[in-house]
Amino acid sequence: MIWELELIIYVFLALSAVVALEVTDMLVAVVMMTIFSFLMALLFIAMGAIDVGFTEAVIGAGVTGILFVVVVFRTSRKSND
Amino acid sequence: MDLSLVPLLAVLVSLVAVIPILLSSDKPNLRETWTILAAVIKFGLVLLLVPGAIEGKSVELHLIDLAPGMPLALNADPLGVYFAVIASGLWIFTSFYSIGYVRGAGEHKQTRYFASFAVCLSATIGIAFSANLLTFVLFYEILTVATYPLVIHNESKEAINAGRKYLAFTLTAGLLLVAGSAMVYIYTGTIDFTPGGVFSGVELPHTAMLVLFIIFLGAVGVKAGIMPIHSWLPAAMAAPTPVSALLHAVAVVKSGVFAVIRVVGYVFGTDVMASYGLGDILIVIAGATIILASLIAFAQDNLKQRLAYSTVGHLSYIVLGVALLTPFGMQGGIMHIAAHATLKITLFFCAGAIYVNLKRKNISNLNGIAKVMPWTMAAFTIGSMGLAGIPPINGFFSKWTLALGSLDGDMVIPVIVLVVSGLLNVGYFFPIIYRAYFKPGEGLEGYGEASPLMVVPIMVTAILSVLFGFFPNLFFGLYDLAVNISLSLF
Amino acid sequence: MIESHLPAYIALTFLLFSVLIPAFGLWRNELSQPLAVIGSGLAAGFSIYGFFTYLQLGSIRYFFGGWEPPIGIEFVYDGLSGFFVLVINTVAFFVILHSHHIAKKEFPGKEMPYYALAMLMMLGFNGMILTGDLFNLYVFLEIASLAGYAIIAIGDKQAPYAAFRYLIIGTAGGTLYLLGVGFLYTITGTLNIIDMTAMLPQFAGSTAVVAALILMIVGIGVKAALFPMHGWLPDSYTYASSSSTALIAPIGTKVAAYILFRIILWLFGVELTDAVVPFTYIIGVLACIGILYGSIMAIAQTEMKRMLAYSSVSQIGYIIMGLSLANPWGFAGALLHVLNHAVMKAALFMISGQLRLKEGHSNISLFDDTYRKKYPWTMAAFTVAAISMVGLPPLAGFFSKWYLALGTIDNSNWLFLAVILISSLLNAVYFFRILENVYMMKPDKGQKEASDAKRNEVSGSMLWPTSILAVSLIVIGFANAVIVGVLLNIFPM
Amino acid sequence: MNKPFQTPIVLLGARLLSPYIMVFGWYVIFHGHYSPGGGFQGGALLAASILLMRVAGGRTVAELQIKEFATTPLAVIGVMIYFATGLVAVAMGGYFLDYGMLPIPGMEPDWLRYTGILIIEVGIGLAVMAILVMIYDNMVRGEDYG
Amino acid sequence: MKILKVLILVLFAAVLIYAASDLPYRGEPDNLMHAEQSITNTRVMGSYFIQNAYRDARTPNMVTVVLGDYRSIDTFGEQVVIYTAGLIALLVLRKSKRRRKK
Amino acid sequence: MADFFLGHYAYWFTIILLCIGLYGILFKKNLIKKTIGLAILQISVVLYFVSVASKWDATVPVLDPNIPVDQVANYLNPLPHTLMLTAIVVGVATLGVAFTLLIAVYNRYETLDEEELIDKIQ
Q1: Nearest neighbour of F101 by CB, restricted to C157, C164, C172
Q2: Residue D3 Cα, gap to closest chain C Cα (Å)
Q3: Which of residues 79-108 of F touch E (CB under 8 A)?
Q4: H/E stretch holding C76
Q5: CA A55 → CA B39, B92, C189, C330, F85, distances in Å?
Q6: F104 part of contact set with chain D, CB < 8 Å
Q7: How many interface pairs between D and E have CB atoms less than 8 angstroms apart?
């Protein structure tokens, strides 16, 4: 547990989350979500939860990312807000 | 002889009769046979209970628990037997009369009509024999629902609106009854009807008692037709006349006043009523209803409407008698149940006969009909005289006892109310008789008396009321019964 | 031997069939529904047997993996969970039995996944009820919710959007519940309900415990459609396929109500719940608002399914109100209402499904006199269920209101009593309106006269379940003293 | 996706990577006892290797690797493995999922548990792989509403 | 409406932050969730797992043991959740054999 | 004060992330955005559990023969980690279902914007 590292990741997490919600191009939002998941995995590993971090990296960043992209391609890429 | 199952059988017999009635919907004669059979059996069963009731004994039957500690129980006590005798006895006449009426008027959906009728009678007898508030609620609501198809029987716009009004009033009343019963249970731990009341050992604040009483008043007052909440009753006159006759002269409204007696005598108890000053409230309401209803009756041109307002007024006689909280008053009220039932059913039968025969509903059209329908109008005269309190018809004696009761309780105003309303009764019945006998009629050629199926019941009920006037104890000792009941409550 | 395994068997039967249905359904699609009937029937049998076993032997605790709690996870079959399991499985059995023709018409070719998901949803509900572990409850909650979203998404054109809204709000609720569990775990260090019940009184007054309570009530309240969180319910129930609605409506909100019971009366206990803020009273007031709101909105609807959906919002309020009274009468009334409402709503939604199947709509203003001729038994069942909903004796619906009324008076809670009475009247308004149409409305010109209408009753596989449910309403009404006698023994205080 | 990225380079890269990811997936499943990992992570990796081929190659290549209709039975088998393990324990007189009661001769309860965990991890892995592929397939093909 | 939403959100955050400040300090080994005995003298799960995982299942990775053995029904539920999601994709998106009516 | 901050800042950040997620759900009109908000909400709860599992100066919950297990403080609490593995998978399943429904909605209405959707439904 290194709290300085955690704090930095926290800030980036919040930033990526807000960006993912605010951009109008959904593909960017999806990429930001993948970054968010990846940062989260990093944070989990920093907290010593290696299993959770690994799972988050594989499932959250990997599989969900693919599914997200599929959805964006099957539907519309633009968002009004 | 073991009578313990008789109350249950008396309740069930007409309920069971519904099944053959529904099954034989294609064969009218067979269907009506079932109805009459059920009516006769029911009356016979009720009569079995009369000797015991005169001795003051009651037949109790505990069936199942409706709720923990709250059984579905029947108790044929004197008051219940008294009411059951009247209701089931008059059902026989009504059955015959109904057959004549629905066939004469060519009513539709006759099977539904007779089936609902049978259910109504079951519910009424159930109300008479209920041993506790929950059983009472059960039958009270069944009566509400079973009467609804009868009220809307014509399926006209007016009838449907009347049905809605009827449901709105009676369902609200039922809910208030539920709430009141629940409160009684929580406060006293019992919901059984006990002569003298269940509040004996319970100290309640005055307001709580007042609120509880008002809830009960609302609950039973709707069916008893006391004044601000009576308006469903004139509206429900849209129903066929036998329905008005039996249900709105005997079964439903009498269930209401019967409920008033139960509530005053068996739930609150006369002592509690007196000590909390609840009787006075009831006297005021009942007195006002008597006068106002009689006044409104003046303004009605429709015969059935006039009879309906007359009913509202006479129901309050009974309520007034109960509210006096004196033995004579109670006795008078109970006697007036029988008196009013026989008299008013006669009047309604007459109105129905006139309608079926002449298709006339309004009083202004009745000129000279005594010439074509002499028997009917004779019965009508007897009925109206009885209601006006002219001796020797039974209506006089109940009013006399009521007056005695109020003097017994050192109250003069109720006596004045009785006298004034007697005059008013004369005032609104006399013009009808006058028109029928003394004014020249128009367009009456070719009409005769109604069918015997209708005239015979009319005459029988009229004669019965006269006989009861002369010999109050002639049949079944109803007078002694009334005396015993009222004494048992004080 | 079988007795000690019953809690697991009840849930696992559904799981087994949710696996068997795809295995056989891929081969022959039409086998799906019979298999689902067998599965739910078996589970219902186990539940009935289990409840009688409970009455004789007392609660059963089942330790998964052989690890005793608090180390492992247990299933607790006590009176409350046994009762709920009995109710939901029996009702589900009838609904699944009933759904054969509706499934064939409304989503042809999709029976296999539909029934597999129905089984999974029931597994989730049973697991939620039986489990004795707060996190395990979350897992089962998600199983049930996910399957529920999908089952709702099958139906009208609007159904997927309704399901999506339900998904968003439902998952958010589930997540808040999980956060509440997290708070409790951080404070006490255990997840087992029985274990935690013993510890929590020592943390009375802690803000975090209160926050956990709020989070859990909000999270579960979403699922239970507690008043301000009911928004998902009307749309979902209206647009979903008739068989889906009949399956979810009687069961889904009840299970959530069960969890509220478990949390407030068992886990926290009334004293701790009300220690800082009078939560039970607040919940009760919300339930009251919900009751009135649901009833009034139901009156405004012309579509029968939508009307019934709003009526569900109102009826769930009764259950929550009984919970908030926290006395034996209110408790018994609420539980009896769970049973009654499950049976009534299942019957009513099944009837609306039958009408949709035969007539293609369930619009109340189009009902007329011919319906009585065409569907005499359906309409008889409807009449019984409707009168029971209104709460007239001796039908079952009256008695739950009776006990609730006793409970409110026992607490001197006049507001709640008034709400019960008023809402009964409102119920009468919207049910008697339908009855009036069915029994008296003359058909429009151009349509057949009532006397000409041919009898067109639905087939036995639909008629029997409906009729049995309707008859059971009468039976429950007369037998309720027995049921309530058992329920009063369950009350924890 | 109606227009997959069907360029030869991408396909080649995917075909190069896919087997290694798959092997790594199995490694993660079986090595979950000693290092981070287990059924879910391994299953997700297996799914990722298959999805990679599907994204890169479109439907024709996908059919060669795992056919669409095979995913449902695979998922059922995965769940069944877990379920059967639990039921065997019940049949041997234990509680559901009590691996200590598994009927494998010559093993102490602790090693039985070791084996039991391994078996269920394989089941989970299979199911997760099949289902993720299933979701992808259905999503890509879309719905025929209208 | 939007202002109401903002207000609810801010209020919710404030309540939660206030309540979270009442939680035990993070990372202290003597928190109840890390202790060996709970206040009612039952075993605490976390410490039991750390001490007995290897003895019970010969597996060094404690998370795997907890996941696969102690709380295996949780994991089973988790697998069922995924299975449910798969079936949902089938149900909602699969082509039906007969085309539905418009 | 510093101790208080160190002991609680992880919770506060969790709650901030949670509220960002809720913000996405409540205020965003686009349904995919709502889904993203949902994902953030779920992961923030996972973060909460993982952060309470940590102990100062403890090692990961994989047995190291050199570190004795009878000193519980030597290892991180494995239970929340396990729970969160489950929670993450549940979250993915939820997202999968959400995507499935999104595609179904788009097939019917050709839009994912909530206001347009409501317009088209009515």
Answers
A1: C164
A2: 26
A3: 79-83, 85-86, 89-90, 92-94, 96-97, 100-101, 103-104
A4: strand C74-77
A5: 80, 84, 24, 47, 7
A6: yes
A7: 103
Chain segment F76-101, per-residue pLDDT in tens:
999 999 999 999 999 999 999 999 99
Domain membership of residue E65 (yes or no) is: yes
**Chains C and D: how many Cβ contacts under 8 Å?**
39
Of C374 and C310, more confident:
C310
Classify residue B456 by burial, with Cβ atoms within 10 Å: 0-12, 13-18, 19+. middle
Number of domains in chain E: 1
Domain total for chain C?
A: 1
Residue C158 lies in a domain: no
Q: Does residue F78 belong to the interface with chain D, where contact is any CB pair within 8 Å?
A: no
Q: Residue E57 falls within a domain, yes or no?
A: yes
Q: What is the pLDDT of residues B27-71, one digit of tens each?
A: 888 888 888 888 899 899 888 888 888 888 888 888 888 888 888
Exposure on the CB side of residue D121, measured as CA atoms within 13 A: 28
* Residue C385 and residue C348 in contact, taking contact as beta carbons nearer than 8 Å: yes
**Which tens digit of pLDDT belongs to each residue from D79-112?**
999 999 999 988 888 888 888 888 888 888 888 8
Q: Do chains C and E touch (3 or more CB pairs under 8 A)?
A: yes
Contact status of E4 with chain F (Cβ, < 8 Å):
no
The CA-CA-CA angle for residues C462, C150, C19, to 5°, reads: 80
User: Structural domain of residue C431, as residue ranges?
Assistant: 340-493
* Interface contact flag, D143 F103, Cβ < 8 Å: yes
Please give the ipTM for the structure prediction.
0.90
Average pLDDT for B377-402: 84
Query: What gap in Å lies between CA C105 and CA C84, rounded to an integer?
Result: 31
Instruction: Report the C-alpha dihedral over residues F100, F102, F104, F105, rounded to 10 degrees.
Output: 160
Domain that holds residue F102: 2-121
Substitution target from E76, E95, E97 for chain D, most D beta carbons within 10 A: E76
Q: Which residues of C touch F52 (CB under 8 A)?
A: 182, 185-186
What Cα–Cα distance (Å) separates residue D4 from each residue in A73, C133, C446, D57?
11, 46, 57, 7
- C429, two tokens: 């308004």
E78: containing domain: 30-94
Q: Hey, of C26, C146, C175, which one would you mutate to test binding to chain E, going by the most E CBs within 10 A of its CB?
A: C146
Q: Check which CATH number belongs to the domain holding F89 and give it.
A: 1.10.287.3510
**Quick one: angle between helices B452-470 and B78-105, nearest 10?**
150
CA A13 to chain centre: 8
* Residue D103 · residue D88 · CB < 8 Å: yes
